[in-house]
Amino acid sequence: MEDLALLGFGPDGWGKVLVQAGLMTLAVSVAAFVVGLALGTLIAWGRVSGGGMARALAHGYTAVMRGVPEILVIYLFYFGGRQVVTAVGTALGFPGPFDISGFMAGMLAIGLISGANQAEVLRGAWQAVPKGTIEAGRVVGMSRFTLFRRVIAPQALVTALPGLGNQWQSVIKESALVSVTGLVETMRQVSVAAGTTQEHFLFYAAGAAIYLAITTLSDQLFRLAERHSLRGHQQGGM
Amino acid sequence: MDLSFIGTMFLRILGGLPLTLNLWGLSLLGGAILALGLNLLRTTRVGDKVASAYVFVFRGTPLLIQIFMIYFGLAGFGFIRHSVLWPFLREPYWCGLLALVLNDAAYTSEILRGGLRAVPRGAVEAGRVSGMSRFTILRRITLPLAIRQALPAYSSEVISMLKATALVSTITLMDMTGIARAAISETWRAVEILLSAAAIYLALSLIVTQLSVWIERRLSPWQFQRTNR
Amino acid sequence: MTDTSKTVLSIAGLRKSFGANEVLRGIDLAASDGDVISMIGASGSGKSTLLRCIPMLEIPDAGTVGVGEDRVSPRGGRLTRAEEATVRRMRCQLGFVFQNFNLWPHRTVLENVIEAPLFVQGRARSEAVDEAMALLDKVGLAAKRDAYPAHLSGGQQQRVAIARALAQHPRAILFDEPTSALDPELVGEVLKVIRSLAEEGRTMLIVTHEMGFAREVSSRVVFLHQGHIEEDGTPAEVFGAPKSERARAFLASHFDRNRQG
Ligand SMILES: Nc1ncnc2c1ncn2[C@@H]1O[C@H](COP(=O)(O)OP(=O)(O)OP(=O)(O)O)[C@@H](O)[C@H]1O
Ligand SMILES: [Mg+2]
To answer: Do C104 and A136 touch (CB under 8 A)?
Structure first.
């Protein structure tokens, strides 16, 4: 099986660049997930405790992000981002050419999509916090912020963890779409390798294996976190 | 913004709507059938392992890589190039559709499984003690409850599949996204074109959302209507 | 009822409706230092609503609530910024014990008790812990300090909730049917704790269906009917010689039921 040498770390092997590409997949996914978590928290806050305007905005945003193909959003950030940067740059008198990196476009696009989905998860978890425990916080005189930080958030996070885990899995898979911007992550790298060597199946299978490894490993991590966050205290009632 | 340009682009992209709808509908149909099969497979021990492995692989990897693997990868095998399937598997349309079906089946089978598991044991036992046959229980109790339970998740899956069809544009198919991409490379006016395409997808997804709310109400009046007591 | 002692809690002209349902129709009630007031009345007569209006868990439509030197008279079903600050000061001087305990499930017994001292009152941790342990000892649960609420019986949870209320250094403690969610065999342990608080001279307002207990610990009994206070007197007066027909009927049915049960 000399084919397999192509995946190795020898002189003809693609092993090293594949590992690098896998790390790039992780990097862009983590960045996008964090953007999504921050945005998701904001939107969930808007939907749960905002006024009518904030609620409508949050609702509309979620509907749009759930209804538009991810790849269009990525194109929009990549091509559109370039258009915007160019317009702004030229107006400010900078010399061209202007560009927006694939990493930036991908991170923002996937982060914004994930934010809408994470918001749904967080909102559900927030609304599942037992009302009585919130009242117990109010009667001891907690401010809104303290109440959120000490009573609502810790309880909601436990409920939200499995859902956030699913969103993380989605983000990893969506990160493959960033390959259309030319960012050299796993998907892009295996395409290049497949084209160069004409070993299409081998390299796409290798790519699939990398994604499976990342999704499986992080699934285990989330399960661990879940078990830790429960710390046995909710086995009984609730 | 140039409204007449947007109008022209809108109409041009709509030209890809039939292909998008075609892939969407057929992949949901094929996916549902395969998903039912996967759940039947789960009744045996070996079948359960097979179904789990299938779901694991197809849910654990990006759809894009699945599409490429089928379109580019399968051609590398001599026995496939010489099989009766080759006339199909050399066509991007069939490769795209196959990838979409296989992918949808993995997600749908899990949704259906969740619905089946959520059927309360008591409801089934109540059917049994009132003398229903196994088939009657399946038809009158298990499936209606399971489908009702699975509906919200399935409506998300339906929308996901609409969005998934956009990926076939990467293997040269001229669906709405494919046309949009071509138009961008001709005109370089990405924002207007992409927003036009996005609006069409959004409209379709909103229709699905409304429809699913309506169906949900129809299927489970006990959760939405006040009974007169 | 001693006029010379200080008024801790005062309610005047309190009204509250839920939609068309007028639940409180002008309530006046004051508690002086050391009063133990039991509030009785039929289900739906508005007892919980009245109690929840004191820390503004429900915001009344009209009327005034005062705790210590602070008082608010909210209008229009919402609190202004200034009123919110006052309400938080009032809450810090009250203890509230819920029917369903409402312990924070993600915190241990000890953490439940020190939560407000640390994060609301900003007290030092070591001091808060020492005090919390003394309170837990008092309710007989010092050994459970590191347990989570889900691992406690209902009676134990309610005793933790009482310790949590005491950690407020409350000028008055409000109880909303503290034993109604408990299995009969667990009621006694909670009543015992409340009785000991009465003996210490704590100011308390207790909504309860335990008539025997009310008669025994209270300095005053209030009978609520359809949003009005219909009787207000010593246990002997209210239980022994109720003035209103409704109170008589309520008490008769209640003691009957108790006897049958
Ligand atoms: N949040 C609410 N929204 C609407 N109606 C309410 C609300 N809370 C209470 N009510 C209504 O107010 C009335 C009085 O309720 P409340 O809980 O104060 O009675 P209660 O005297 O405590 O009764 P119980 O002995 O059963 O606890 C009831 O008719 C109840 O339905
Ligand atoms: Mg009540």
So the answer is: yes
